[in-house]
Amino acid sequence: MIEVKELTKSYGPSYAPTVAVNKVSFQAHAGEVLGFLGPNGAGKTTTMRILTCYLSADSGSATVAGYDVFEESIEVRKRIGYLPESAPLYTDMGVLEYLNFMTQVRQLPKSERKERIRSVIDTCGLEAVIQKDIGELSKGYRQRLGLAQSLIHDPPILILDEPTSGLDPNQIIEIRNLIRDIGQEKLVLFSTHILSEVSATCSRVLIINNGAIVANGTPEELASQAKGEEVVHIAIRGPQEAVEARFDELDFVSQWTHVETTDDIVGYQINATQESNAAEALFHVVVQNGWSLTELRQESADLEDVFLNLTDKEQT
Amino acid sequence: MTNIAAIFKKEFRSYFNSPIAYIFITFFLGLSSWLFFRGFFIGNQAEMRGFFGLMPWIFLFFIPAVTMKLWAEEKKIGTIEILMTLPIRDYEVVLGKFFASFALLVVTILLSLVIPFSVMYFGDPDGGIILTGYIGLLLMGAAYLAIGLCTSTLTENQIIAFILGIFICFVLLIIGEDIVLFNTPDWLFPIFSYLGLGSHYSSILRGVLDSRDLIYYLSVIGFFLYLSTLGVESRR
Prior knowledge:
The complex is a heterodimer of chains A (316) and B (236). Chain A has 316 residues and is α/β, with parallel strands linked by helices. Chain A has two domains: 2-225, Rossmann fold; 230-300, 2-Layer Sandwich (Alpha-Beta Plaits), CATH 3.30.70. Chain A is 36% helix and 30% strand. In chain A, helix 4 (110-124) runs antiparallel to helix 5. The radius of gyration of chain A is 25 Å and the shape is elongated. By secondary structure, chain B is mainly α. Chain B has one domain. Chain B has twelve helices and no strands. The longest helix of chain B has 29 residues, at 49-77.
C-alpha cells in the first residue's frame, strides 16, 4: 500500500544542503503496524510529511495506495489520515465544530457525517469533552481529538507522528491499544523515539538514522540480530568466596560482577559467551555445590541494543 | 466549490468566535465616524467625499490586521500541516480564506451605512456618488485584503505579516499620487500612475465606474491571490 523508493530530501541552501532523508526505500501493507524508530532529527517527520504530500522530495518516488505522491496528490490525501507531531488543532473551535469541519473538508456525504463523528468520538473516547472548546482540552484529549480527526474519513492508511509524546502512562497505553486495534485491518505508520513503544505496538520496525534506514524487520528479528554476550543475573545463598572462586573456574563466564549482598545471599551479574546456555549451566553449578538458588534471570538482547548499536555506529 | 465554502465558513466563524471581528467593527466604525463627522459639521456640506477620502488611510491599518492571522497563525501552531494534507487544492484554501475576510469587510461596511443615512438626514447628498463610492471602497478593501493575505503566507509571525502588509499597501497607494508622480522619471510615469491604488480609487469617487478601474482592481486582487498560493506552496 505504501511503496517508497530512493526517497531523498534536503533542506537549506543548495551550496550547503542538510540531507534530511537519504535514499529511503521501504514497503508496507494493510494490516501492518509499522514503527518508525529513530533519534530526534533522524528524518522520521520529513519522510511522513513527504508521504502525506505536505512536502515534496528532491528525488525518488513514493506511491500510496497505488497513487503517486507527487503526481496524484489529491487521491493520495483522500486515503490517508494524518496526525502531525503534537496534534496541532484550532484552539478557538469547539470539539464538535472541529470534527464537523473535518467531515466537510474530507467531503463526506452529508448523510454519513453524523454517524462518522459519533464513531470517532466513541473510538477515541471523546464523549466527556464534546461540549468543550479545543483550547480548554488537556494534552491527552487534544492528542485523542487529533487522532479522531485522522480517522474521520475511515482511511485505509494512517500516518501518526509521535502519537504518544507528552501523554501520561495511562493515556499512552490507551493510545497504543487503539493503534493496535486500528492496525488489524488498516496500515498504520507511526513514529516514535521510545523503544518500548515499538515492541509493544508494532508488527514491523524501521530504524532510521541520519536520514537513512539502518534496519527493517519485526521487533523479534531485530532483537535476534543483536550480537553480543548473554547476560545472566543470579542470586545464590552460599559462601561468597567459594562462589566467586567457582565462577573464575568456569569457561563460559567471561566476566562476573558482584552486584549486592543481602544477609547471606550474594547477587551477581554474569556475562557469558553466546552459545553457552549459561543459565542452565549455572543452575547445575549451584546444585552440585549444594548452594541454593534464589534468583536466576536471563537478560535477552533487546531492541534497545539494536537501536544503540545502529544509531551510534552511524554517528561516529 | 464545496471545499472553498467549507474553508470560508470555518474562517468566517472563527472571526466571530474570537474578539477579532467585534474589535475590528467597533473600532473601525468609531474611528471613521469620528474622523468624518468632526469635519462634516464645519464644512456644512451634505456630502461624503471626506468619508471616502479617509478610507484608504484607515484601511491601511485595519485591513492587514484582519488578514495577518490567516496563514501566519496556521504556520505558528502547525495546523497548516493538517490543512494542507487534506484533499483540497492550495488555491481553494486561499480563496476560502480570502472570501471569509472579504465577508467580514462587507459586514463592517454594511454597518457603516449609518453614516450616509445620517448625512441624508442632514441634507440631500448625491446618492449616485455615494453608491459608486461604496463600490470603490469594496474594491480597494478587497485589494488590500489580497495583499495582506499574501504577506501572511510569507511568515509565521503575525506582526511581520501586519507591517509588511501595511508597507505594500502603502507603496501601492501612494505611487499614483501627484506628489510622487511629480518626481517620477518620465518613463516610469505611466506605469506608476496606472499601478497606483489611490488614483483608481479617486476616479471611482468622482462617480464614474469605469471598466478600466474595475479591471485594475480585479487584476491586483488576482495577482496577490496568485502570489498567496505560491507563498503557501513555498513550504515544499
